[in-house]
Specification:
By secondary structure, this protein is of the alpha/beta class. The chain is built from eleven helices and nine strands. The longest helix has 18 residues. Bound molecules: iron/sulfur cluster (SF4). Iron/sulfur cluster binds next to helix 10.
């Protein structure tokens, strides 16, 4: 992270000492990884690892009975069936969806106020994915916690999120209420994502032209300009000068959201550039 601020419950986390991070990470902020196997010990039973988490949460070394009751409570919360036998099973004996529920139960052991879920349904089939999303939505309401969902899937964002932050090449492109940002994009990258998602729903595949840059090898000026159809349209076939000068534009207020596109108003008047438009180098991928 090279700039900006992360304010969490009144504490600035950027540059915070390790002791502050230790008091928050895994306590007030919990994490659910993309792969349930990354969030669970493969050789210990579900009960053993959840008991350890619950005891650590309470700094409790003795009270087995109450720790076991809390584990049961957590497993009920994530709707695990046949709890008594699951407590004695190891991760490889569970389905992917059940494992992800166990990981979520572990993340809730310390009653976090923010749960960060990093692509929590990517490895699951569509039916199980819908159930896990339902579960996350219910837990957010029931426990009064915030949910920060990291996703490449706009359909998942639409299902679960109130607000969206669209990132590209390590920078914020657009952010605001998710329905507004999706339905009336004011950044060509968001528009490209939405168009590609619609195309996929219709059974086709039409990616945004070009390739995402490698981490750290960001293009100069607007980081999206080598792939942007709008800048080519505005520059009569070559990137518009303003898109290639200076630093990455900072997001600014525009029509109820923040956008980092210098020509956001052109998105409303001229419409989004089509997916599959020519890139700055003349290639179409
Ligand atoms: S600033 Fe220019 S290159 Fe960047 S998204 Fe807007 S039109 Fe495209």
């Amino acid at each position: 992270m090279t700039g900006g601020s992360i304010l969490f419950e009144g504490t600035e986390l950027v540059g915070a000492p390790d002791a502050v991070w230790r008091s928050i990470r895994g306590h007030r902020i919990a994490y659910v990884p993309q792969s349930s196997l990354a969030g669970i010990n493969p050789v210990l039973t579900v009960g053993t690892q959840l008991m350890a988490l619950v005891r650590a949460a309470r700094s409790d070394t003795g009270a087995d009975v109450s720790a076991r009751a809390r584990v049961r409570e957590l497993l009920e919360l994530v709707e695990i069936p046949r709890i008594d036998s699951v407590m004695h099973e190891r991760p490889h004996q569970l389905s992917g969806g059940m494992r992800q529920r166990v990981v979520i139960a572990g993340a809730l052991a310390r009653s976090p106020s923010l749960l960060i879920a990093d692509e929590p349904t990517t490895a699951l089939d569509v039916r199980v994915q819908a159930r896990i999303l339902d579960l996350l939505r219910r837990l957010r309401e029931q426990l009064g916690m915030s949910l920060l969902l990291v996703s490449h899937d706009l359909a998942v964002v639409e299902e679960v999120c109130d607000s969206i932050v669209v990132l590209y090449a390590g920078a914020v492109m657009e952010s605001g209420p998710q329905a507004l940002v999706r339905e009336q994009s004011r950044h060509p990258y968001t528009a490209g994502l939405v168009a590609a998602a619609h195309m996929e729903l219709a059974g086709g595949y039409e990616p945004i032209p070009g390739e995402a840059p490698s981490v750290g090898a960001w293009p100069s000026a607007c980081r999206f300009h080598p792939r942007c159809g709008l800048t080519l349209r505005l520059g009569d076939g070559a990137p518009h000068d303003r898109c290639c000068e200076g630093a990455q534009p900072q997001p600014f207020e525009h029509e109820g959201r923040l956008t980092a596109c210098l020509f956001a108003s052109s998105m409303a008047t001229e419409g989004a550039p089509t997916v599959g438009a020519q890139t700055a180098t003349g290639e179409s991928t």
